[in-house]
Amino acid sequence: MKNQVSGSIQFQPAKDMAIVTPISHRPLTLRTPVTLGVVLIVLVVLLTAVWISGTVWGAVRNDSTSGMFWVMLGAGAPLLVAILAGVIAYLTLSVKAFNLNRRQSNFIDSVTHELKSPIASLKLYLQTMTRHDVSVEQQKEFHLIMLEDVERLDSLINHLLDAARVERGGEAYEASDLSLETVLSKCAQGACVRYKMPPETVSVHCPAIYVHAPVVQIEILFRNLIDNAIKYGGSPPKVELTAVCSPSGDVTVSVLDNGTGIPANLRRKVFGRFVRLGSELERSKQGTGLGLYLVRNITHALGGRINIQDGHWKVATETDSSDPTIPDTAEQTPSSQQELGSRKPSGSRGTRVDVTLPNGKIIEPEPASDDPSPQD
């Protein structure tokens, strides 16, 4: 039925028409399990205290039956302590399950977005090429864009497969002596291509170090570290890779970026599965929350260790213009020099991730012989 009110048409539902309201789901919280766990812990503690004090008081006041009270104390106290431990374990597991469920929800949101964006782009360009006459130049441009979308999908799928492979474990990889400089340079070049950055975005400082490890795991390890450093670096991002080898054979690779850094209380948390800081709906960076999880698991599988600390990427101040993210003075325009001069001292910034791996060695190149080769 419809009524005309003030020149507009309004529709009113019939009396027998069912009005369907959207179903709203309340967000899951830890309030109920935490409250229940705390109440149970308090009750068990009170019961334990009453039980111990009552049995001790009965044993002291009644000499004839003191043996029975001591037996009751010896049997009941461990049982109550076991119940208390079970309640604490329940509360701990509930919190862990809730956090894992929240991270999985963020992971699903992230993967859905990562899959939907390139697929929507591919669909748009394919529909445009099908329904409209497109010139050869535009076709070439569309093909390049679609190729980038396909590579983005391929990278996401490989990332998920790497995570599944690491999670499953049990796969044996053949180890060999790898040139660390070659591996780091390859990963750095690939990251610059993926993120459309100039080659100088990632600098590699590595002597002739060789590590005995599987090439697949080493490439996954440093590819994820470099990707993470570029994604969360400054604007523009700058990444510096430095490798050193100790006399004992431990190789330490430091990945330094010029980003805002990671708070100290979250540095252990970021290595968890599906962990991404912040809300997935408010995040602008691509990712699935599996990169540092892969890094940690592969490092431990290789017998190494990993550590995150504050970086020391120098930030330009009023009297210092040595920040690599700012052009040299000779190349600065008057406006850029004015902007640089207005910056306040802010110390250093960035994040440094140190990965230490065993079974490394330095192979120095053989010196060239000074004796001329014999001639016939």
TrEMBL record:
Region (Disordered): 317-376
Subcellular location: Cell membrane
Domain Histidine kinase, chain residue ranges per copy: 110-310
GO terms for cellular component: plasma membrane
Membrane topology designation: Multi-pass membrane protein
Keyword NAD tagged: no
Keyword Nucleotidyltransferase in record: no
The reaction(s) this protein catalyses: ATP + protein L-histidine = ADP + protein N-phospho-L-histidine
Entry keyword set: Cell membrane, Kinase, Membrane, Phosphoprotein, Transferase, Transmembrane, Transmembrane helix, Two-component regulatory system, Virulence
EC id: 2.7.13.3
Gene Ontology MF term list: phosphorelay sensor kinase activity
Gene3D superfamilies assigned to the protein according to its UniProt record, in alphabetical order: 1.10.287.130, Histidine kinase-like ATPase, C-terminal domain
Main localization (coarse): membrane
Membrane spanning residue stretches: 34-57, 69-93
Top-level taxon in the UniProt lineage: Bacteria
Cross-referenced InterPro entries: 2C_sensor_his_kinase, HATPase_C_sf, HATPase_dom, His_kinase_dom, HisK_dim/P_dom, HisK_dim/P_sf, Sig_transdc_His_kin-like_C
PANTHER family per the UniProt record, alphabetical: SENSOR PROTEIN CREC (PTHR44936:SF9)
Record protein name field: histidine kinase
